[in-house]
Every structure is written in structure tokens, then in C-alpha cells.
Amino acid sequence: MTRRVYIIGHSAITCLGANARSTFEGLVEGRSGISTHEELPADRYIQSIAGRVAQIPSLPEGADSGLSRLNARFLHLAVAAAREAMLDAGLDQIPDSIRERVAVVVGSAFGGMDLYETEREAASRRKNLGTSPFLVPGMIINQAAGQIAQQLQVFGPSLAPANACATGGYAISAGAEMIRSSAADLAICGAAESAFTPEIVNGFATMKAMLGKKAQDRSVGDPSQASRPFSIDRAGFVMSEGAAVLVLAGESAMQALNLQPQAELIGWASNSDAYHMAMPNPERIRRCLQLAMAHAGVNPDQLDYYNAHGTSTVVNDRSETEAIRGAFGTAAESLAVSSIKGAIGHGLGAASAIEAACCVRSLLTQTIPPTINYIADPELTLDYVPNVARDASLDVVMSASFGFGGTNNALIFRKV
Amino acid sequence: MIDSALLTSVVEHVRTVCKVSPSVQITEQSRFVDDLGIDSLDLVSLFLTIQDDFSVELDDKELAELKTIGSLCAAICSHRGVAAA
After folding, report:
1. DSSP sequence for A168-229
2. Which one-letter DSSP state was computed for residue A333?
3. Which H or E run includes A35?
4. B41 → chain A, closest CA residue
5. Residue numbers of A annotated as active site
6. Distance between alpha carbon A413 and the CA centroid of its chain, in Å?
């Protein structure tokens, strides 16, 4: 019999809130976490409008174990998110008997590029080429999983997906596979990102994926309107940072540890565009959505809500709309589709993990967060849950994400 | 005898960079590894920070011979052209 996979804990640290609950409350209230940031000055950054985490929750007293040496922000976000998710699961104490059966699957698109930036500048001033011994351990993407394992003292397999903006989805899928195949009893899955180096920000702006500076843009007077998925005047994503973690468990572990399910992960799928380094392929995205539904054993008309990748770029939102129509057929007309990126921007590798955590909250609260800053585009005619949250009867919901390099992922959750 | 201001500054660097607990007493005679329990990565990081903040350049051979707080202070003085004692 196929092992079922449950979500028993979840977390999210975003520009809207220091945990999943406050983030989701902000989303439902239609608030934006996007603003102009002085630490992204115009002489170094093409764009200073962004979503930054106000304060990363600190570690408990005595819980450092080396993390404070590693000044890569994604690591601190990852560890804080993992701690919150474990607390949310009721696992503040992990039984010794299961420590070898706990996997950590936490990825990032960019890893410690902020640390690289800092250390590169410092090293370039030294004649002897001296470089911090913490540069390499702090930059590597799998250090997030390593630090979480070290903090929590869990000894199961660890993995660090790096799938651009689909990283979180891939991490959750990989963790689910570990549960399903009995490679682990619990899987701590998610992603973290903080990549505010000038070269990365300016690189995204130069390739026109990110919102650049425009004199007539509605973000000029109000930066909270910079990210506007599916809107007629969408003009690129707004970069943000954050982290989110889901704790997955198989049924037997959940019962043995007396843990409560919050939702079930009933299906997931990943595929490749094999098409372009950065442009999405609607046909392959459509196929990914269909594969996820087939894996979950659900029909398009059973989906109550689709949490979109919805980046606020001209190309993504059009391609995704086309893919949804292709995958859902006539059911697309009545499908609620929303993108939370209007409120929290694009967390890159962390985005799909944050969106997965929000899907869990949608199922728990029976609420769909809106697509804020929305002004209708006559070419995009799905129900994008414009500007105002919606109470709904939610049983099955999907979260989809797509990354540069042509990598796609879709997750399907069910209410328990 | 090490200049007390220099000693104080070096000790502050050791505490900050190597996260040595305030409850651990640090003196001129304290040995980095044996007394303060500083690991090799923290030690390298300390020496880099010291070189940056004190504008001195210590070669690998010198660094390998630095075992105590006092020897580090002396090396800083030597490179600044100031007598340590």
C-alpha cells in the first residue's frame, strides 16, 4: 500500500511576517510587505523596491553551534524557519529513537551570495589574498540543511535542491518521496533565500525579469504597488527574501509520535521545459500541472484553488494562464487562482516553499488570499481573486512554481 | 609588558570573532587553543580580522607561531614598528 504523506507543521518567514500565521494574516488583509529600502542604494542597485525580512527570529540561548560565524542570510532564515515549523508540529523535543529517521531537504537558488559579496570585497583589500575560512562553508547551498540538522540533532539523509524559483517545490517533493519510500519517517522540507547582492539584483533588472525603474510606473508614488501579478500593467517581479519549511510525516510516524495532521500532500510532479534558459514553455507547464493531478488521482474539476507562480512578469503570467487553461480545460473557468507575490514579491528559491505553507494555511482557514494590486488585463481572463480575500470551501488546492533553466514543479494538498 | 589598550582591543577581538564566553578570563598568557578552546577556523578568522583592523600583515610562518594573546600583541607591535615591552 502506498504510504500517505501528511504535513504536520509549517512555517514561513517573509517581509509580511516573522511566521506563517502573521504572513498569512497579512496576505488575507490585502497588505503588502514591499517597500523602498535604503540599504539598496541607487548608486549600486538598479532597483531599491523589495521585500526584506524585518528581523530574523533569533536562536534560543546556547543554540548557536557555529551558525553565528556564517554570515549568509539564507542560512539564518532557513534555521529559523525549520525551528518554527518543528514547534508548529509540536516537536520541540525530538525523541532519540527517531533522530536517524528525520530527513532534511532544504534548498536555495543562490545560497550565500551575500556572504560572497562581503568577503570578496574584504579579500580584495588584502595583499596576502587572505579569505575568511567561513566563506566556503557559508556559501554552499547544502549548509542550510546541514545547519538545520546540526541545530535539531537529526541524523537522517539531507538534500539541497537548487532549482531556481521552483526550489521549494522540489524540496517538498523530494521529502515526500523519502516518506513514501520509507527512506525517512519525518522530512523537514523547504527553502530559504536572500540574494540582495548588486550583481544579482541588477542582473535580474537587466534581463527585464525584475521591475526596473520607470518614471510613469505606479510604484513610483507607492512602492507597495510594484508587484502586480496578472495585471495589465505588470512590468516585472519584485525581489524579496524569506524562508519556509513544511514538516512531512508518514502515517505510522504521526501516530507513533501522537502528532496531528494539518493537511495531506496527495500529489506532486516535476518536469523540464527543455526549451530556453529563462523563458517558460506553457506546454511543459501545462504538462506538469496535469502530471501532478494524475499523481494525486484528482480531476481538474476537483481543484478548488490554484496558488500561482504569478510573478508579475509579462511573460510568466501570460504563459501560466495559458498553461492553466490547457491543464484544467473548462474547469479553469471556475478555478480560483491567486498569486501572493503581489504582497510579498518573489522570494526566488524560497517562493514556492512559502506558497506551499500558505496553501496549508488556506486549507486550515478555508480562505483564499487575494492577488493584490490587480487591474484586469483583457487578455488574461481567469478568476485571479482580485484584491480581496475570499472565504471558500477548500478541499483540494494546488501550488505551482517554475524556474529559470526550464524547471517546473506542482504540489497538490488536501484538507484533512 | 604589553600596552594595556592594545591588549584590551585584542581581547575584545578574540571575544567577538571567536565567540569566547564572557565568563572565560582572557589574559596575556592565555593560549588560543589549549586555554580558550578556539578552533582552527575561528583562529584563522581572528588573524584576518586583526590584520584588517590593525593594518598589519602577518605572513603564514609568523601566524603559525602565534600561540598566545601576548604573542599576537607582540606581533602587531613588531609590524607597527612599536616596541611591545
Report:
1. HHHHHHHHHHHHHTTS-SEEEEEEEE----HHHHHHHHHTTSB----TT-TTTT-GGGS--T
2. G
3. strand A35-36
4. A133
5. 165, 309, 346
6. 15
> What's the predicted TM-score (pTM) here?
0.95
Q: Tens-of-pLDDT digits for all 416 residues of chain A? A: 678 999 999 999 999 999 999 999 999 999 999 999 999 999 999 999 999 999 998 888 777 778 999 999 999 999 999 999 999 999 999 999 999 999 999 999 999 999 999 999 988 888 878 899 999 999 999 999 999 999 999 999 999 999 999 999 999 999 999 999 999 999 999 999 999 999 999 999 999 999 988 889 999 999 999 999 999 999 999 999 999 999 999 999 999 999 999 999 999 999 999 999 998 999 999 999 999 999 999 999 999 999 999 999 999 999 999 999 999 999 999 999 999 999 999 999 999 999 999 999 999 999 999 999 999 999 999 999 999 999 999 999 999 999 999 999 999 999 99
**What is the helix (H) or strand (E) element at residue A137, kind and residue range?**
helix A135-139
ipTM of predicted assembly, 2 dp: 0.84
The secondary structure element, H or E, covering residue A240 is none
User: Could B59 and A128 be called an inter-chain contact, meaning their C-beta atoms sit closer than 8 Å?
Assistant: yes
Question: Which of A188, A184, A149, A155 shows the shortest CA–CA distance to A172?
Answer: A188
The closest alpha carbon to B54, from B16, B4, B3, B9, belongs to: B9
Q: A363, A415 in Cβ contact below 8 A?
A: yes
Half-sphere exposure of A123 (CA within 13 A, CB side): 14
**φ, ψ at A288 (rounded to 5°):** -60, -45
Optimal mutation site among B39, B41, B46, B62, interface A, most CBs of chain A within 10 A: B41
